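ok so heres the complex, two chains, lmk if somethin looks off
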Amino acid sequence: MTMAAVETERRPGMLDANARVTGRVAYAIDTRLPGMLHAKLIRSRSPHARIERIDVAAARAVPGVRLVLTGAELARLPGVDPRFGPVLRDQPLLAEEVVRFVGDPLAAVVADDPDVAAYAATLVEVDLADLPAVFDPVEALSPDAPVLHPAPARKSGMFRDVVVHNTANTNICNHFRIRKGDVAAGFLESDVIFEDEFRSPAVQHVPLETHVCLATWVDDQIVCHSNTQTPFVLRAQLAEVFGLPLTRIRVIVPTLGGGYGAKCYPKIEPLVVLLARLTGRPVRLQLTREEEFVTITKHAMVMRMKTGLRHNGTFVARETTGWFNTGAYADIGPRLIMYGAIGTSGPYRIPNLSADTYAMYTNMPPAGAFRGYGISQAGWATESHLDMIAERMRIDPLDLRRRNLLVEGDTFSTGEAVNNMHVDELLDSCADAIGWQAEEEPIRMGRVVRAKGLSLIAWRALPLAVSTAAAKLNEDGTLNLLTGSVEMGQGVQTALAILAGERLDLPLDQISVSCVDTDVSPYDQQTSASRSTYAMGGAILGAVEQIRDRLLDLAAEQLEAKRDDLELVDGAARVVGVPDRQLTYGEIVRAARAGNLFGNGRHRAAGALDPETGQTIADGPGHWHQAAGAAEVEVDLDTGRIRVLRYHGSVFAGRIVNPVQAELQTEGGITFGLGQALFEEMIYDGGQLQNGNLGDYMIPSVLDLPDGFDHTIVEHLEGGEIHGLGENSLPPVMPAIANAVFRATGVRITDLPLTPEKVLRGLRAQVQSSKP
Amino acid sequence: MTMAAVETERRPGMLDANARVTGRVAYAIDTRLPGMLHAKLIRSRSPHARIERIDVAAARAVPGVRLVLTGAELARLPGVDPRFGPVLRDQPLLAEEVVRFVGDPLAAVVADDPDVAAYAATLVEVDLADLPAVFDPVEALSPDAPVLHPAPARKSGMFRDVVVHNTANTNICNHFRIRKGDVAAGFLESDVIFEDEFRSPAVQHVPLETHVCLATWVDDQIVCHSNTQTPFVLRAQLAEVFGLPLTRIRVIVPTLGGGYGAKCYPKIEPLVVLLARLTGRPVRLQLTREEEFVTITKHAMVMRMKTGLRHNGTFVARETTGWFNTGAYADIGPRLIMYGAIGTSGPYRIPNLSADTYAMYTNMPPAGAFRGYGISQAGWATESHLDMIAERMRIDPLDLRRRNLLVEGDTFSTGEAVNNMHVDELLDSCADAIGWQAEEEPIRMGRVVRAKGLSLIAWRALPLAVSTAAAKLNEDGTLNLLTGSVEMGQGVQTALAILAGERLDLPLDQISVSCVDTDVSPYDQQTSASRSTYAMGGAILGAVEQIRDRLLDLAAEQLEAKRDDLELVDGAARVVGVPDRQLTYGEIVRAARAGNLFGNGRHRAAGALDPETGQTIADGPGHWHQAAGAAEVEVDLDTGRIRVLRYHGSVFAGRIVNPVQAELQTEGGITFGLGQALFEEMIYDGGQLQNGNLGDYMIPSVLDLPDGFDHTIVEHLEGGEIHGLGENSLPPVMPAIANAVFRATGVRITDLPLTPEKVLRGLRAQVQSSKP
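and the predicted structre for the whole thing:
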C-alpha cells in the first residue's frame, strides 16, 4: 500500500468525497420524472389576517396552468385531513380562513413549467383583512395578545412521549417543567442570588439545497421524493393526512445538500402530494432561498434565570423561565423546549432546580429543529449567567465552573445518575489551549483590547428513539448496509461503513450504504440530534453481528474446524495459526449456496421522563453530550467590531469513529456558532422580515474564521459509547465569545448577536455611568 | 363488504392492475436522469466478416455528438475486460476484429439527443470483408464450416453448476448428455424402432417494452437502471467486466413491460455502463423493435429421435440428438440444452435413455431463454414423435401415452424418483374437454376437415437456484416485502403478497412489495423458469415466519398470556376465545418501541446433476412441471389454412396462489403456443432476416384465439408445493395442433410453424404418392 493509501484507509473522510467535490452527486433537487408539473405557492403578505377574497381566475386562464388551489377549496376536499405537524396537527396544508405569518402559504399554482407557475402565481389576487398580531414570545402571554389557535390542536400519532401541556385561548403551545429538589428552600439557603435575562434571535439554517419535493399519486399509492431528514416521520404524517396505510406511501430520500435541522419533519410534502393527487401527474415544488426564510427558523428565545449560591461559589438553587418563539405553527417546538429546560443546569451540580420552558405561538414563521436544538439557546443563558455571577462574586470564571462540576454520584437536571462525564477534561483542554490565567487583565493596544472567555455545556441526547438496520453480505463477500439514516453531508454513511467494516474486518471499498427508501429501509426515527452514529451505528452492529455469527457457523462446517478456533480477518475466516486453512467470505457464501447472508439489528435509546417533573422514570440513564469552548477576542473600542483571534472547541466523542469527519463536524459547528455569536439574526419590523435573502442575511465565510482555529476531540473508549458530534461544538461558541468581550470591554451583551452597535452602545453607557 | 369487494378480495388479480391499464405504471423505459446522453449502435450488415476499416470522423464532427467508440478502441481501454456472457464470456461489448451475425454491434455513438445519435450513426463508414458463414446448427458441425470462436471462451463466475463440454476449433458451444440405463441393449430388446427428425425455428419474444438501459458511473460507482429479468446476474457480470466489487454496482429494476426470457442475462448493459464511464454522464440506450430481432431469439432446433418399443406399445429405449442453434454468442444456450435433453423422455417411463444436446455456434443472432426454455423445442419432438409412432403401430395416441405414463416408483430422465406427478389427470382432463374418442375419424365437410390432437409434457424446474427475501412489519401493522423478483406483468408481487398475507392474516391492501434494487433487495438468482411464486414465495414465507414468531412473543408479553393461547387473526394477536384481549400488529410494534419487525428467509431448489450422465447426484428430487394440451382443428384442403376450433390446456399448479393470474398465465402461454404452432418464424436468407419487424413478423391477436379456448388448472395441496405457471401451458400447444392436423389430413409436418404452404405441400405429396 502507498502511504497515501494507508492514510486514506486510516482517515477515510467520506466515501463519496470525490463525487461531492466534483459536483456529481445526485441530490433530491436533481430528481426529475417524465411528465412532471411544477408548483408555486402564493403566500401571505400580512402577519395575521382574515382572508377576505382570493381571485384565481386570471391565474387559471394562463396557458399551461393545470391547477390553482386555495386553502378554502382544499379544506373541502374529501379524503384529506388538511392539517399536519409532527406533534400537534396545527398547520394547514394551505391557510384556510386566516393567515398567521408573513409567508403563510394560502394558495398553490401547478403548471407545466416552473416559470409559468411563478407568473400565474403573481396573478392571484388576495384581499386580506389585517388582524392584531403578536411577535414576541413574552408578549404573546399577555391577555391582550391575539390568540393564534384558540382551540388546542389535535396531537399527531407520532412522538407519543411528548406530553403536551397547553391551554385553550392562550398562545401557549406547550409547557415543559423540570422540578428537582426544593427551589424555594434552595433560595432561602443561598447566600447570594442573581437574576438575569437573555435573548437570542431567530436565525436561518441555510443548507445549500433548499427544500424540494417531487411526488406522484397513482391509485392511492404515493411516492414522495423529498430531501427530508425524517423520512419515516414524513411517511407517518402522510398516512395521517391522507388516511392511508403506511404501505401505500413510499418516501425516497437521496443524499441531501445539508440539513442542520431545517429538513426535519414535514414541510411542503403533504401539499405537494395532494397536488399530485389532484392533477394525476408528478408534481415538483422547490422553494426559493427567500421562501426558506419563511419556512423554518431557529427558535428565538427569552430566558430569565435566577441562581442562588453559597459565598464559596457553590450553586444551591436555580429557577428558570424560558419562552421559545415557535412561530405560527408548532412544528417540533413542543419537544424542543424539553431540551431548553434540561439544559438550564449545564454540567453543574445544582441540587434545587426548577425550569419552565414554553413554546409560544406568535405571528412569526414556524421555528423548529436547529443544530444545537434548544441547547444553544439555553447554553447562551447559562454560560453568560455563570460569567456574570463570577464577575459579581469576584471568582475566576474557570474556578467557578470547576467548583460546581458534576461528578460521579451526582445527578443531572433530569435526576439521572451522572456517568461517563468528562467536562473537567474538556474545560481543562480549552483553558490550556487558550492560555487561560486567573485574574488575567485584558491586553490593550491603542484603541484595541484583547481578552479571553470560556464556556461549558452538557445536554442529554435524544431519548427513546429507535433505529433499526439490516445488512447483507453478498456472494463476493462485500457488504451492503440498509439504513434509514439520511446522508446529508455529515458522513453518516461513511461512519456506518467504518463500524460495520471493523466488526467484519472488511475494507471500506467493500461496503456500500444505501440511501433511504421507506419501502425497503428498516425503520429509523430520524436523522437529527447527533444520534445516527451512536444509534444507527448500534443497529448496524446488531445486523453485522448476526452475519458474523452465521459466517462463523458456515466456516466451521466448511473448514471442518471448531468455531472457537476461527477468526475473521481481512474478509476471510481462518483457523487461528493455520494461515492456509481459510475461506474468504465470498467463498463461504457461495459454498453454502446461500445467495447472501442477511442480518438485522436494532438500537433503542433509554430514558423516559416524567411529564410533570422532567425527572427520569424509566429504563436507565440517557447519554449526555459535552462540549467546551474558549475564545480570545479583540474589540475595537472605536468601531465596536469584535475579531475572534483564537477559538478552541473541545468535545467529548466517547469513541471517534471517523477522525476526518469528527474534525469537520466540530469545525462546522464552531463556524455556525461564530455566525450566531457575531452577526446572524433574522431582523423583523412588524412581522416583516427585513433581511430575507443571502445578500442581507450573512453567514460566516472562511474570512470570518479566527486565525487560531482549533479543537480537541476527547476520546474515552472505556464507556463503550459513541457520542455523535453533529452539534456539540456549536452551543459553547456564543457564550465563550460574549464572555471574552465582557472581559475585554466590561460590556455585557445578553442578546445575540454581539454586533458592533451593541458593543458601542455598551461602551457609551460605561462612559455615561462613569461621568460624575 | 360489497359483493364486488368480496370478489376482489378472493380474486385480487394484480395489485397494480388499475395503474397498468390506465397507463400510469412507471416502466424502466420511463426512467430519465438529468443531463443524460443517448446512445445508438452501429451494427454489422454481414453475417460474418472481418472489419477492415471504420471511419468515424464524420460522425464525430456532428454537433452534439459526445463520443463515438469502436470495438477496436474499446478493446484497448484499461479496466475493461471486454467480453461478457452469463456462462461463457464470448460476447464482445462491441465487435473488435470480426462481426459474427447481421446486427452484431461494432460501434456506438453517444450524443446529447437520440435523433442526433441516430443521425451520426448513419455517418459511420464501415468496410467489412466477408468471411464464409454458417447458419444451420447441423451444418455448423461440418469440418468445412467456418469456426466462429476458435478458442473456447472463458467461463464466467456465475452458473458454476453448468459444466461446459466444448472443443477448440469447432462450433460446439456446449454438449450435454443424459445416460440412463443401456440404450444399445434397449434397442436390441425392442420389437420395433422408429426414428424421426424435427425442426423448430427461431422466434421472437416480443415484450411490449424493448430493451432499455440507463446507467451512470461516478467514481467507480455504477448505477444501472435496466429492464433485466436477472438483476443479480447483471450485477455480477458488470463486476466481472469492470473488475469491481459488487457493492460498487447498483442495479435498479422497476416493473417491466414483459420479458418472456428476452430480458434474462446481460444484453446492452455492459456497453451502456462503459459509455457512461467514458462520457462522465448518464447514458441511455433503448433498442428499437428492429434491434430486438437481432438481440435475442428463441433457439432454433434440429432434433433426431429414435425410439424402441415392445409390440404392446411400451417404450424400451430412446436415443436423441438435438442441435440448438445458439447463434453467434452463447448467452444462456449452454444451460438451456440441459432442459432440451431432460425433456426428451417426456412424462413417460423409458428405462433406457440417451440424449445428446448441443448448443451450436452459428452466424445468427444470439438465442437465449424463451418461455418454455428448451422444453417447447424438445416437447415438439417428443409429442409429434409419439403420435407418429402411434399411427405406425395403430395404437390410439391417448392409449399409447397412458400405457407409458410415469408412476410412483419410476424415475425421471434424470434418475430422480417420481413424486407428485399428476399427468394422468391432466391427460384425462384434456381428453375429456375435447371429447377424445379412440379411433375417431376426421369429420369432413366439403373441402374442410376437422380432427383432434393431444400432447403431454413434463419437465424439471430450475434446480439449485437460490432466492432470499426480507419483510418488515411497520408501526401501523402493515407489511413491506423486500424481494429480488422482477415484476414483469406476471403478477409475482401480487402472488408474494397473497402468500405473506395469508400467513399473517393481513389483507392485501396492507402489503406492499418492492421492486428490485440490488443495493437493498435480498439476493435472488433470477426471475425466470416459472420459479418465483415457488422459490421466492418460499423465501417470503421464511421471512414472514420470523415476524410471526416475534409478534407472538411480544403479544404474549404485552397481553400477559401464554403464547400457545394466542392466534393471529385479521391483523391482530388475540387470546383464543377472549375477543377483547387483543392487540393489533401496529399496537404490538408500537408498544414494544421496536420501530418495525424485520424478518428474512431463504429458499433453495434441490437437484444437482452429474455432468457426465445427467443423472441426479445430490440433495433430493427436483420439482417437475406438468402440462397437457388438446386441440381440435379444421383444415381447409384447398388453401391449407388451419383454424384451431378448440384448445384446452391443462396444467398442474400444486397450489393455486392467485386464481386470476394463474388463469391469465395459462391463457397467455397457450396464446404464445398458437403463434408458434401456426405462423411465428424468423425467416432468413443468407443470414439476413427477412421479416424483422412487426409488420412482417406476426404474433397472435385475439382474432387468432380459438372460439373454444379454455383450460384446467389442477390443484393438489397434499404435496405442499407451488408450481409456477409461467410457461407450462405453452409447450403442449404446437404438438397437439400438429397431431390434430395429421389426424385431419394425414399430413405430418415436422418443422414448425404449421403453415398453409406446408399443409398444401403435404396434401400434394399424398396425391402424388397415391398416383399409380
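quick notes: The two ends of chain B are 76 Å apart (CA to CA). thats all i got rn
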